[in-house]
Amino acid sequence: MNLMSDLLTNEQLIASGYQMPNYDVSETTRKTASDAKWVHFGAGNIFRAFLAVHQQKLLNLGLTDTGIVVAEGYDYEIIDVLKGYDNLTLNVTLKNDGQVEKEVVASITEYLKMDASSSDYTALQELFRKPSLEMASFTITEKGYSLVDGNGDLLTAVQADFEKGPNKPESYLGKVVALLFERFQAGKLPLALVSMDNMSHNGEKLQASVIAYANKWVEKGLVPEDFKAYLENQEKVTFPWSMIDKITPRPDTSVQEMLEKDGLENIAPFETAKHTFVAPYVNGEETEYLIIEDCFPNGRPALEQTGIIFTDRDTVNRVETMKVTTCLNPLHTCLAIFGCLLNYQSIHEEMQNQDLVKLVRTLGYKEGLPVVVNPGIIDPKHFIDEVVEKRFPNPFIPDTPQRIASDTSQKLSVRYGETIKSYLQSTTLDVQSLEVIPMVIAGWLRYLTGIDDRGERFTLSPDPLMPTLLPLFAHFEFGKNNVNSKIYALLSTKKIFGVDLVEVGLAEKIVAYFNEMSVAPGAVAKVIQSIK
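Now predict its structure.
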């Protein structure tokens, strides 16, 4: 049986507990085509396993009559795969008690490629001219908002768009801003642009990138000055901040086998040429949070009815800061780095290593929690409890340290630099008391050697700064002095670490840990064991 439209009425799956849409899917598709309210950029797992599911809840409750149009601008092969399943997604929720929930999600009514010369892009232009459109949301990863490369130079496609304007844009965000220009020309119609990516101040970063295009286009006379004023008028265009949290690993073969036993066929994960893993199903944990600044000039979906929290910007920022800088993301990156070095293939397996458990507990409770500002709507200690006792140890979440280790250079400044800054600003905390944060940074340096704790080479996860970083460790040898002035220069890089680690006095501690980890095979594990 293929995962196609006939699946919606399959009695065998319904009898075995599969949840099905209880609304008219065809009518929802028709209504969305005429009066779309929500377009989403980024067809990744977290969108399909989280946001699309909540829109389906609204449809099931009769609280909306439209679905979501999805646009993909990075990897077009994803669209080719997903269209082959009639836009349906099978969402598999893996609970920590071993229970599994399976739901066929039909709230995504259309997938479009952001190829500026295609009919799909023409459809997006038409969509952005619709008065009904309330929200454009984004899960395009943190690096998707950057306009520059690792050296701080404008990306080639961005530079081209700055010069040419909104006609036939090449860059991802250039296409988004060109679509906003369509909306401007259609009568300065209102819209909320909501970044739902896992990063601090996500709305602010999206806004800064959008305005950068508008500034250049106005400066060169490619668009009227009113376009920039439109984007900066909060009665017309807003950039709400948000905090999102749900672990959604790449499609796992164990889940595939489970679904095949239910009679589903042709559902194997597919790896695209850009190394994206996509399947007709998504798998994720039960725990999920989405908190959004309530700032929507043209209305919004009633997602508060499905558990999404709408609040003010300060509260969103406090929750995001709690999660990203102290209570979850730093712990995740710690396990990612040391998991790769210690040859682990899953996060839950790492959580069976009591030395690693002690490490992340110390990082969260002892070093992170003292600088957390309680956001009020979520208790920080309870949040960490849930992370280390329920979420990370969940054996049914097939998440890997290798996946989480991707783009680490883009994450360190927020995940550790912000806590270091808080210590420096505190009158009661001493930055020199930090042990795990310097150890994790040293672990990252050790990771960049590409030699694991057994002394064997391993594959490093993708990172935009790899061409710059790898040469620094190209001549690594156990038992040798692998530290030179270039390593200290790296540790002084505020763009990577958020602070100058030499200037704040942590570089020597980091170098000492790195040297200890480089003595011989097995040294990384010994250093981790030294944490008291």
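The chain has a mean pLDDT of 95.
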